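Milestone M4 deliverable, item 7.
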Amino acid sequence: MTARLRPMSLGEILDRTFQIYRSKFWELLGIAALGTAASLSVNFADSVWFDVRALLPAARQPRGVGLEMRWFGWAVITSIP
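Output delivered:
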């Protein structure tokens, strides 16, 4: 069976869009959750890392680690499609 292509009205486009959203709701929610979970985990790790560094004495604090952690977080977040 071949599908015939024809122009659709705005109402038909919106109706089809919401049909797809309703039929694939859980899949779309899972895709959105993956990016959110990755971002949340990187932000949590960043927060924990800098809170621990604030508790260390000044002589024991590593030098220059903050910038590397922020670049790593940026690289992870931007690599997620």
